[in-house]
Amino acid sequence: MLILLEQNVNNTLPMCSMLQNAIPTWQGADEKIWESTLEEASEGGLTGPPTREEMSRDLGPNWVAAKGFAVVQGAKVRAIDDFSDSVVNKAFGTSEKIDMLGLEHVVGWAHQRRGGQ
User: Fold this and answer.
1) Is the pLDDT confidence value at 13 over 70?
2) Burial class (CB within 10 angstroms; exposed 0-12, middle 13-18, buried 19+) of 86
3) Cα angle at 80 between 43 and 7, to 5 degrees?
């Protein structure tokens, strides 16, 4: 189910308030993300965090805050933005669907696309 842009914009301020007032909970690899964030900030790669007023000044009124979480992929820890609570994910989509059938079809199509050699 897709939602309209206007519906998503209506979620902006409540979501910002919820995230700003939330008590952080640390899980799993979140500490690694925090450490890498502090390191990047100390090297000058990050500034902030900006206030809601600064965000609205710089981006206009239609921005959405998102919480994040860590995902471990092998030896690497990645920071992931979680837009599911703010329903941003539901604002994007397609009504068309490609039936991929099976892996052998995907490989065959890729082979054909490369010239069939």
Assistant:
1) no
2) buried
3) 120
